[in-house]
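Researcher: Last one for today. Full complex below.
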Amino acid sequence: MKTVLKGGRVIDPANGRDGEFDILIDNGVIARIGRDLPAHGADVFEMKPGWIVTPGLIDIHVHLREPGQEHKETIATGTASAVAGGFTAVACMPNTDPVNDHAGITEFILKKAMEAGRARVYPIGAVSLGSKGDQLAELGEQRHAGCVAFTDDGRPVATALLMRRALEYSQMLGVPIINHCEDPSLKGDGVAHEGYVAARLGLRGIPGEAESIMVERDVSLAELAGAHVHIAHMSARQSLRAVRAGKDRGVNVTCEVAPHHFTLTDESLDGPVKYDTNFKMNPPLRETADRDAMIEGIVDGSVDVIATDHAPHHIDEKMVEFDRAPFGIVGLETAVAIVFDRLVRPGLISMKRMIELLSVNPARVLHLPGGRLDEQAPADITVLAPDLAITIDAARLVSKSKNTPFDRWQFVGGVAATIVGGKVVYRNAAAN
Amino acid sequence: MTTSAETPTAAVTLKSRHLLGIAGLDADEISLILDTAEAMKEIGGRAIKKVPTLRGRTVVNLFFEPSTRTRTSFEIAEKRLSADTLSIATATSSVTKGESLLDTVRNIEAMSPDMIVMRHSSSGAPHLLARTCRSTIINAGDGMHEHPTQALLDAFTIREHKRRLAGLKIAIVGDLLHSRVLRSNVALLNTMGAHVWTSAPATLMPSHLSDFGVRATTSVDEAVEGADVVMMLRIQHERMHGHYIPSLREYFTMFGLTPERMRRAAPDAIVMHPGPMNRGVEIDSAVADGPFSVILEQVSNGVAVRMAVLYLLSGRDSVDPLDVH
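Model: Here's the assembly. Have a good evening.
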């Protein structure tokens, strides 16, 4: 079974490749990358003018909700959503029910992902048992079962001592600790960014410092432990300052930013629809200075990765009073369009940088295969259509949940096709 | 048509069919409500305190938070306008059985009420109803956000004493951070051209308070100096647990309104409090019960203002509110 991708512009930053190449896929792996490859005996996948062929995109911050919260998402629906968004692989967060703090659960997730046969799934295990912050989970066993990192995401690792031990231990296992940085006492029962908008709307605030205080702590602890810490869904300008300071002195710290944090601000809460819970996420949408700082960090390279924090919630859970609604929005199917429209088209970043943020660096940060197009490697490839006009329609998202703040938004730039292990698992009818 | 010369003749109407907050009302709309309330107040002085204006209309008072004053005030206002009224308090509602707010309200709506007056502990809860329900929604207090009829009755009371709102110095003192009364009053008083000063311990001031268009000071004396109106806000005992204040005793010493502090205010100043009062915490009894106090007048005026709001939102602007026939 051979397929040849014919005539696209291949951008493969890790191999320094940018030009018109054909890619021959044979038996799930990339057999050859070259010009004018013979197509005989192979299915031809003809590229349209302007299409970009890239190493498969990887989203390292996804909540697949299974086991335990299948009314929000399942591994099957979540990975279908991923490939519809151009992602050939996702790393899934352990705050399932039960928490993925045990090799048995990791194995269950991998088995379900295999059965679904869409995107590749890399489980992230819990740092502590039940993510309760008391006792280290069996990180070694989980690593052996397939976990690629550890986090208590949804909750921060609250004590400095546990964080230190987790960093030291995971360093031994060769994987990073990912932390959801947020000082619980400063967050309190906050539901929105602490700023003028929340003050006006009478919503309890979460200051940017609730995040940055813990980023500063974790940068110091990574330095102490000589370990790699990855800062999840960074949102505050003060946090970016802390990450930059750490990188400047050689600390092994990396960070990610979610599309909503470089696109939206807290003003959305006071928009035409006030108190719309599809604008409620944690960390919260912050003010313009923070949003602009996130863009600046993406542009200057301080930010390593764009990750969606795809957090599906059922409409019944979201259609409640603002302070009672769960935090989080879906993101897998809107990320590429937002990155194109808000970063690439305005000329803030190049197409190459986009692919670094969505593929090369996610693979590097979590030591995953992929992020590059190598001969003899699995053919995980994303085909992008930079000129495709997109209108987001929440009702038609592939994800089981429809909680997006971008319903009816129009963007230019999208996904044409997604190929995992040589198999075309998604083709966008609108692009083809 | 007894006093139609003095009362507004629908020169302006309210633009929204709900009253979710003061934010969004313009000066004409606020004046319309206050002017209408003057006519309504006259009804309360009659031997037979009832007009048929809302006869056949059903108003549901849905209170998810304890309230005596506001709920009673709305009920009396509704009854004086001849509406059929029903009050549901949280203890007797389905909410305790795990039903969502929307389901509770949808069930009530299935019985075709015309208006729902709601008090809820979550900011924005009435906005959720307004965009999903058929009924007119009146916000009787939502979380820390707004309490529009309180601000309207405060303004009505100030106007009765001062004949105007524009140009007055109004000091608001107390727990600003958690106060929906503050937010509604600031929106109203700013729109009407008053000069608002606020004072609180630094821990009980909302962030970005200066963006609200008010003067903020931690010195009560500075806020009260020359004030025409001093409005005190309640301090909740629980605030000590959140590290907002060290003790009620210290709070009273530093921020309590005493007769000595009131001497700094204008000689004809009035003292207001939305209730319920903590005597000896935010206000000295000598002030609360003293000559400056209009606290009970506020309560009386609440009925007239709520009658005005109910009437104006009923859409029956062709009917004279004073028509007793």
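The CA atoms of residues 197 and 215 of chain B lie 5 Å apart. Confidence is low (pLDDT under 50) at residues 1-11 of chain B.
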